[in-house]
Structure formats: C-alpha cells, structure tokens
Amino acid sequence: MNIWVDADACPAVIKEILFRAADRVKLSTTLVANQQIRVPPSPYIRNVQVSAGFDVADAYIADKVACGDLVITADIPLAAEVVAKGAVVLTPRGDLLDNTNIKERLSMRDFMDELRGSGVNTGGPSPLSHSDRMAFANQLDRWLARLPHPASR
Predict the structure, then answer these.
(1) Staple 132 to which of 46, 84, 93, 106, CB 3.0 to 4.6 Å?
(2) How far apart are CA 79 and CA 102, in angstroms?
(3) Mind listing the pLDDT tens digit for each residue in 74-118?
(4) Other C-beta atoms lying within 10 Å of the C-beta of residue 19
(5) Please, is 109 exposed, middle or buried when counting C-beta atoms within 10 Å of its C-beta (0-12, 13-18, 19+)?
C-alpha cells in the first residue's frame, strides 16, 4: 500500500503530518506535483515532478494508484477516479471519501461548478483551521491503524 499526495495545492502543514506518519509506519509516500516539492530525506518519502499542464499530476496519480492505496487530495474529480480503482481519499480537511460518499461529493462539486459558471459567487473555501488539521491527522491515524504490520507489507 502507498500514499499518493496531490502536492501542488496540499497545505504545508498537511505535508508535515504525512512526512512524520510515513517515517513512523514505514510506508511509501509519494508527492506528485508539476514543481519541485521539498521532502525530507527518508527512504519512505519521494517527490515526482511531472510536466506542467492542466491535471497532469492528477493523471499521474490516477495511473499509478492501486486498490487499497490512500490518496491525499481536495480535487473531487481525481477523488472519484481513484475511488473507482479501489483507493481511498483523504482531503486536507480530514474528510474520508470512498464508494459510500464519492458520488454525492461529485454531484455537489458539479452543482457548485454550474452555479459559478452562471455567474453566482459561491465564495471560496475557508482557510485550513486547527480543527481541520486535527481531523486530518485523526483520520490518517485511523487509516494507518488498519494497515498490516510493516514487516508483512
């Protein structure tokens, strides 16, 4: 199992939580972005720089993800694509997305996109709060706790 991070828009504080977790549980964690992302020296953490372009990092993650992997992203279309391949998604705000709720999230995202397209100002997301960071860390810990022991991976 692996963790894939849609790193272009992932907040630094979330990346730091992931770095600590990857080393703690010895789990391969890959940050994918169209720019160089700083990662700490670790045998479990790597950075993949893809070419610039719309959704290039998303396409890379969708191509490489496997059933049972965890993807960190706020991008709902990417989430829907990787959930269809058997992955689980954790948003930076701590929302866990899987087969039980991804269709609802995708419908809401499409609805909001239509509103914005018709000129309605829907506002943007609020800044990442302390409770968002805690929700993320807690959900990540729950997901990691379900993994087999590192020696059996």
Answers:
(1) 93
(2) 7
(3) 999 999 999 999 999 999 999 999 988 878 877 676 666 766 677
(4) 17
(5) middle
Which residues, including other chains, have CB under 8 Å from residue 150's CB and lie 6 or more apart?
A: 25, 26, 27
Query: Over the stretch 10-43, which tens digit does the pLDDT of each residue have?
Result: 999 999 999 999 999 999 999 999 999 999 999 9
Structure tokens at 90: 């954790």
In sequence order, what are the residues at sequence separation of 6 or more whose Cβ sits closer than 8 angstroms to the Cβ of residue 68? 1, 86, 87, 88
Cα distances from 135 to residues 32, 55, 103, 142, 146, in angstroms, run 23, 27, 22, 11, 17
